[in-house]
Amino acid sequence: MSSAVFSTSAAQGRPFIFDGQDLVGQDFDGQDVAEVCPQPTGAELFSEARRPQRSVSVARAAFSDARLAAVTPASRLEVRPAPEMVSSGIAVMDALTGGLPRGCLTEICGPASSGRTTVLLAALAAATQRGEFCAVVDASDALDPQSIAAAGIELDRLLWVRCEERCEENLRAADRALEQFLRATDLLLDGGGFGMVALDMGELPPQKARRIPLTTWFRFRRAVEHTPTVLLAIERQSIAGSCSSLLIKLKSMKLPSENLARCANPEFPSHAQLMMKLEITAELVRSRMERKPVRSAEITFASKTAWAG
User: Fold this and answer.
1) pLDDT at 15 over 80
2) Could you tell me if 261 and 276 are in contact, meaning their C-beta atoms sit under 8 angstroms apart?
3) What is the spatial distance between Cα 7 and Cα 27, in angstroms, rounded to a whole number?
4) Residue 14 counted as domain residue
5) 243 alpha carbon, distance to own chain's centre
6) Least confident of 40-44, 117-121, 235-239
7) Is residue 31 situated within a structural domain?
8) Across the strands, what pairs with 136?
């Protein structure tokens, strides 16, 4: 008869000897003990072989349940508070967009003579009249001081950053101007304290503006998040992509004859005409201020020139 040693629990502290035929254990005193290792049937062996796989499956299911329990359902997520909106200085545009959002990037784009500067000056005038300090980064040194004063902007609350004078024939000078533009914007946004920072790129060629990487626009947007600063970009074409929370496109309109007047100055040719009023069409292209996408909408408003009275 073959025999082997089988250890029981430590509480007994006594080894058992069992016979492979009758499977009746005997202790070392020769006394019969209860059966300690009954031979399993084929079904039980199959069940025992399957048990580790079931254990792994149960463990995986428990782990998945634990991970899912740590995920907050979308229905319980806190709604991101809407940014504070301030007036753009143009009532009909405020009715269209709700105003300009603080802590966000707003793009105003359009071709030449589409009213970009009009919107820029109106927004700056509204901000300075609210008692806020504003900064304008002029990428092409194209702003007119007389137009700034005539728009009602409080000059003692305006910082005008004039980048290097543009020179289309000198590419190196244009690159320096763009570098100054980006560096000045970084300094202003990092410093804070401004109610509005306007980036005037209206006279910057689109091929130059597209050289600004998308990561830079993300950095600008992150710099103004959770701050009271309105970041306003004036461009020919939209270049910030998804970084902008509000995108308004301006269109040129054919000037009616009543918006033109003969020039009475004898120094000008007799056929010269002065523009008295500009008709501006603004289209709301994108707005992230609402949960649902905003349908495209347009408005038209007029802007008088300084000499029209």
Assistant:
1) no
2) yes
3) 11
4) no
5) 4
6) 40-44
7) no
8) 160, 198
Q: DSSP per residue over 64-130, as a string?
A: HHHHHHTSPPGGGSPPPPPPPEE--S-HHHHHHH-SEETTSEEEEE--TTSSHHHHHHHHHHHHHHT
- Do 136 and 121 contact (CB within 8 A), yes or no? no
Query: Do strands 230-235 and 105-109 pair parallel, antiparallel, or not at all (unpaired)?
Result: parallel
Domain count, the chain: 1
Q: What is the per-residue pLDDT for 221?
A: 95
- Nearest-angstrom CA–CA distance, 248 and 238: 9
Domain assignment of residue 204, yes or no: yes
Q: Give the structural domain span for 216.
A: 85-308
Strands 297-304 and 277-287: antiparallel
Query: For position 252, which CATH number holds?
Result: 3.40.50.300
The pair of three-digit structure tokens given for residue 6, joined into one six-digit string:
């089988």
Q: What is the pLDDT of residues 98-128, one digit of tens each?
A: 999 999 999 999 998 888 999 999 999 999 9
Q: Is residue 10 a part of any domain in this protein?
A: no
Return the number of other C-beta atoms located less than 10 Å from residue 130's C-beta: 14
Name the residue type at position 160: W
For residue 149, give Cα distances in angstroms to 90, 152, 156, 158.
17, 6, 11, 11
pTM equals: 0.67
* Pairwise CA distance, residues 242 & 95, whole Å: 23
Q: What is the distance of C-alpha 142 from the center of its chain? A: 29
